[in-house]
Each structure stands twice: as structure tokens, then as C-alpha cells.
Amino acid sequence: MNKNPLIAYMEQRDRLSAEEREVIESCVHDVVELPAGADIVQEGARPTRSCLMLSGLSARYHLMSDGGRQISAFHIAGDFIDLHSLLLGRMDHAVGAITPVRIATVPHEYLRGLTNTHPHLTRLFWLSTLIDAAIHRRWLMANGGLDSVGRVAHLVCEMYSRMRVVGLCEGNSFRLPISQNVLADAVGLSVVHVNRTVQRLRRTRYLHWQGDMVEILDFDGLAGLAEFDPSYLNLEPEAR
Amino acid sequence: MNKNPLIAYMEQRDRLSAEEREVIESCVHDVVELPAGADIVQEGARPTRSCLMLSGLSARYHLMSDGGRQISAFHIAGDFIDLHSLLLGRMDHAVGAITPVRIATVPHEYLRGLTNTHPHLTRLFWLSTLIDAAIHRRWLMANGGLDSVGRVAHLVCEMYSRMRVVGLCEGNSFRLPISQNVLADAVGLSVVHVNRTVQRLRRTRYLHWQGDMVEILDFDGLAGLAEFDPSYLNLEPEAR
DNA sequence: CGGCTCTTTGACCTTGCTCAATTCGCGTGG
DNA sequence: CCACGCGAATTGAGCAAGGTCAAAGAGCCG
Hints:
alpha+beta
């Protein structure tokens, strides 16, 4: 993965002109590294830059009054994690690094400038936030309508599908550096129950899940449990 | 409410030029009425027009394999219910009319044209989809981290806050034409449990809820149950 | 080795689900 | 005016998925 992951992300969805590729390339300028556990953006902040993930895993979350943490999305290389802060004033949630991350920070002025000069690129940026919203909807479906096994299976299917696009899979295997604690916060279950659910999932033989490594053995089987249909990820190139 | 509700929606978030107001006005052209229960957009469709709610209540939903329906958002006057179909190819969910609705349908070509000529308006359209996403996130928080009372209270707080903006409240009262069946599909609980939850909510004396009519008696009390903070709705005008 | 986080297990409890029946409001046809 | 039908609201009883508490392994790093 030498290629800029945002270009990979975009080209999975539409065709880019040479100039557009250059513009995107120029976004990767101010690169920052943060350790696992660090907050990339804090809830309530009013960022003046947006962050593009270059590597690692991060999560959007919100702290509940009982101390619990609810995760509403994971972000991997190629994801613009807080592009929405360009137009939304205050951050209504925080973004934290799950693993060590490398991110490029892009000034809002620069992005706003692009919206005045590059309509097509603007639509693609917009698109990426729309896909985020589609993912949120899917999580609502999964967390509201599936049992614990389905929820976890759904997350695995989604992360697998998204990681493939940006070249983070080897064959049917990928690293999912999500502890069961974090997993629990994402699917809205207790750690104990997540643990038992993962064990049940392993017993299905649809996947191997050992530590960080997940190998998909029967994607269709897994997708069946999760009622997973990847079309919400908009992985087909199309004129946008 | 003679005013175009989309203009009310936009002006709650930013200042509009006279020309922009005109452009928005011109979107309300092809008006359609649909009865309660009708599908406004079907899952899997590839719309060539987007729908703007003028009146009534609609819901985005997805049918689960067990026949259940998971609702991921409600839409009221002023909401662009499938603006995202402009850039996303296939609808990953359906939108159904909960009450009879009046909608304006706007051709995608027209909207796409605006993205080429009106950057500020484009940002505002983008903004409206970002607010939708913020609402999804909030629902994820509520449905994942609150008990049944909190979830229902959250929905009430949100609908109240949103309806006020577009002039659908009288004092502290508003119509919430959502049957307990529909409510159950939105908060991810069974009808029976929703019924008991609503009764518990009534006993708190934070609200009067009789049939369709909800009167908020103690918003802060309700917001406390729901951990509700309206800032995610971005109700403050700001240069975007 | 010691400390730390993550995983796993057991026992018991609670919230919310299912099934089934009753009631209520309201509009329609007789 | 009244019986009837129908969807929505309500209630009761028993069940089950998932939560809580507590403790024991496992893996990893200094």
C-alpha cells in the first residue's frame, strides 16, 4: 500500500482526473502520528482542520453518563474521519485512536476552497460522508434488529469488505485489532456477552478468529447470519 | 407555515442570499401527495429525483429477514429525504409515508447542476445530509446505551426540537403521529415493551402524551432521561 | 518475575420478548 | 342509533437473551 489510500477509496467509487488525483495527493501534507488510546478529535471541539486516516484504526465514540462508551463507527486508512466538521460547527462526538494511527490533517480553508473550485471532487467528498451515514444506518439495523451473533458477524463482514478495498486484506485474512471491550462498545453488548458471542461465532466455522487475525472461511455463511449486503458501501465505480 | 419549510430549515443553519432563496423555492415544483403507508422510495431503487418533504411524516426503514422493520430516521417538513440518492447509486433502504405526505420531487440533473454553479448552496445541501448522519449517530448512542425509557424519551426530545424549528409546535405541544408499533421499530423494542415504557414515561410527569398529542411539561427532566443535547441538530445559524 | 490488559468462565439477576387475550376508539354499514 | 370490524393500546404470564459480579487464565512487556 504505497498508494494514497484516499485515492484508492475514491477510485473505488468513481473515476478521478489526473488533476483531481494531484489535489487529493496534496491533502496529505501535515502528517501526524498518535499512539493507541489518544483522542484525535475531542467531543465539543470546533476543529479548523479535518483528519484523513493514513494507517491504523480509529473509532468515533460518545461517552454516556454511566461511564459507558458507545462507538458509532470505525475508521481505517482512506477514511476522512471528521470531514463533517467542515460544515458542522461543534463535534457531537469524539474520535479516538484504537491502534497507533497516522493521519494527515487538512485545513478547512483548503477544503472549503475546493468546494468553490472543484465541484466533482466536492461531490466525492460529500459522497464519503454519505457512505459514513449509510454505515450508521446499517449499524442501526444490525444493532436494532439482529441478535448478538448477527451483530458481531455484521461488523466482521463490514470491516472485511472495507479493508479489502484499501488493500488491507491478504486473501481472506485481515487484522482486526479490536479488543472485545471495544467490540462490546460498538455492538452495544456487555464484554462478557461479546466474549460468548465470539466463541459461538467461531463454532460456526464460518471464520477463524485468533487474536487480531480474522480469516473468513465462508463469507456467505457469515453474511447470512449478519443479513449483510455490501451494496450500502457503494463499492462500484460510477459517475457521481 | 406558508413559508417553504426547506428555507426555514436552511435559515436555521446559515444565512441565505435572495438568489439562493429563489433557487430553493424553484425546487418546489413537482408536488406529489401520497397516502399513509405508501412507499415514497423503495429499497434497491435508483431514483432520478430526490424528494423534499413539504408536510406529513415519513420514515426510512429496512425490512429484516424475520419480517421485522427497523426504522433509522423520521422525516418532517423541510427534510430532504433522499438527497443522498443523488450520489449514492442504489437506495440501501426504503422511505415510507407514516402519515399522508406532500412531497416535492426534484430532478437529480437539476441538483447536480446546482453543485456546479452554487457552491454555498451545495454546502448547505451537504450539511443537511451531515445532520442526518449526526441524527443516525445519536440514535446509535441512544439505542445502544440507554434503557427503554431513555430511548423513547430521546426520540420525543428529538422530534420536539426538530419540529419547533419548522414551526410544527404550538407552545410545548406537538403532534407525534407515531403508533406504538412504529415507535417500537424505531427504538428497537417490542410493541409490548414500548407500551409499558410509554406508560412509565407518562408517570414521570415530564410530559402529557395522549394519542397523537405530546405536551412537554419538563423538557430538562426528559432530556435528562434521554441524555439529550440538541447541539447535534446544529440549530445555530453559522457561516458554512 | 511482576504488572498489565485482554480473554474466559461460572452463577445469578434483570430487562425486555413472546404469546395470548382483552379493551378502546372510531368509522362503516344496516 | 346500534352492531360490527379493525387497528391501536393495554394487560398478564411465562420465557430467554443478555447484564452484572467475581474470579481465574493467558499473553505480553519491562
